[in-house]
Amino acid sequence: MEGESQAGSGSPASSPQASGPSTLSRTQRGAIAAQACDTCRSRKQKCDEQRPKCGTCVKFKLDCRYREPQPTKKDKTLVEILERIKSLEGKIDNLTAQGLSTAFHSSISGDAFVQTPAPIGSIGGSIASVSSSAFVPAPPSDAVLSPGNVAHYNYVSSAQAMLGWPAVQELLKDILPSVPGRDQSSLTGQDGISILQGAGPPLPLAATGSRRRSRAASSLESPSSAGSPSSTQVLNSLTWESVQVLAKAFFDTFNLLHPIVDRQAFISTTLPAILTNGLIFDDSIQSTLTYLIFALGEVAIDAYSRPGGVKARVTAKHPGLVFFNEARRRMGFSLTECSLENVQVFALAGIYYETCFCHMDFWRMTISASSACQALLSRKDSNPEELTSARGDIVKRAFWYCSVMETYFNLELGMPLTGLDKYEALVRVPDFGGPISQEDYISHFQEHFASQIVLRRLSADFNNILSNVSGSPASSISSSLSPAPAIPGAIKPLAMQLDQWRETLLPMHLRWVEPDPGLFPSTSQGIYGATVYPTTTPVTAPSTAPSSAMPPITSVGFTADLSSQPVAYPYAMDIQIALLRTRYYTTKLLLYRPFIYKALHHPDQMTKEDADGVATCLNACLKWPITMSPACTRKFLIPCLFFWTQNILGALVILHLSEQVPILARIKASGICGAGFEADARETVRLGLEWIGDLKEVDPQAEWAWSIAKGIFGLND
């Protein structure tokens, strides 16, 4: 069908310039550019390099074949990353099948790591006198492993479930009565859908409360407003130059984080065709996709043109609403279409809903994208060769986007999986083949997306393994009690896998030294082939570097100084790095949180290994890059804000408990958390409160989280 050859197509036609859809000169093409076909080579004449056939081959009705470009050093690096991903998948499978059994039996049989602790659980003990030597290892005995003397751990995969722990409930019992819509039973008895629905009252149509919340909701809930004179005026004023600015803003930000639309095909094929036919009167699925791209492009431009947090914005309505409402008017015509564009439309609509803090709508659209992807893959299951084409690679990317989102909905809220994971063996990891634009080539989006996929696989497998060890279903809402030493024995090899991801699987420009997650690697200055320059709105800037009159960035990294002018890195580099690093630390927190439970509820049975686990967990809470500038100043670009707010609240609760609970305070005083822990913890609390406070006026879930944090830390509104 026609839709099969447009937005999702792998067509390598050259991108148009702002003046119109003309062919780029050779110096303007990307590093992996098209080249003369074999026919023109043999005739020794100039080739216009059009696909699927150049002008000469069309004229003489000849077969048109292009040679594959020779792989560059960057291509070889990406191939190496993908090979390591496949190797890691095998290791994880072996770990699941064999490693747990070995770890468990060896720990029971004599390689003891269950140790008799010194009596450090006494509340009246001296904190200052405790050192790491207080946790003295001892050989196992029948008494240690007997049912009456078993140390219990509690595994949960979400911060929401952690709030149901008895010790946390005790902390919150005086706070929850003042929190609207929540009591102690609501923290443990609700499923994910109830949590999403209860995140706050329905956004009102009337202009009450926050300006942004009410007006954005009014526009979202009144699609007929798209026909208002102002909307018509906006649509009629679109020019080739203005739509290129919107498209570039989308592809330089959202599509680098979730590369599910082919920039080259959209700019060179879909967009010119849509504008030629008349965008306003076009009801095709391509026009729906185009409007969604424009809507998210406007969100990206707003994020860069007015940095400084969400509460600093006082615009009359949410950016991109005119385009989004036009897309919603057309979505009904293609709801059941079995195509790549159908998956893309649902996914992009969900992303836009999340920028409006409509979390339930985000989930519903994401699940719809997963269902549409399954329908598409069930058709390709009988012909897997289709996935080897350039368009098939876009299908793979859309599949993994849906899979990543599903996994985190399952971990954070216990939402059921749709069954999309059964297609992993068919789809495999995308190879990012086919021609790409210059911007996409130098943005390194492939490495970022591949790293996301691996980290998602690790998170899902960690959750399944720890839940299986605990003998209960893998669910973020239900808790998992387990006798020692099963969970400690399982955590060790999983932590090694996570460290391997950070130390060896990540490409060099995405790696960091763990004690300081706020620093960019030294190679960041040159990863784009030139010094990184700050710009006011990089999404609207040309691809080439600014003039030499503009001073280069001298300090590359994240900062806890939220009052400083945020640096605008090209291609959302700061968001890419912040997402990967923060997800790494939340995954590490997931692994080591059972040690916090034991310290809170069984302090008299703590061992040195348990204390080390507590220290690792506490350090995993510190200074997440996503809460630091410049990433936190552009929250509209950060996917899944609901998840991050939940996890930030969870980290704040743990850090507060470390101040209030004697056993945790004594572990900190022993020095095993590191010399700078206290200062970093104070900074982390400030950053976390800034994050939640910035969103509380526009996001009902953040408003609820603020009520909890305000009560814990004794803050005023």
UniProtKB/TrEMBL annotation:
Look up keyword Amino-acid biosynthesis and say if it applies.
Answer: no
**What spans are recorded as compositionally biased (Low complexity)?**
1-22, 216-232
Keyword terms, alphabetized? Metal-binding, Nucleus
Q: Name one Pfam family in it.
A: Fungal_trans
Region annotated Disordered, chain positions = 1-28, 206-232
Residue intervals of the Zn(2)-C6 fungal-type domain: 36-66
Please give the Gene Ontology molecular function terms for this protein.
DNA binding; DNA-binding transcription factor activity, RNA polymerase II-specific; zinc ion binding
Q: Name one GO biological process term.
A: DNA-templated transcription
Gene3D superfamilies for this protein: Zn(2)-C6 fungal-type DNA-binding domain
What is the name of the protein in this document? Zn(2)-C6 fungal-type domain-containing protein
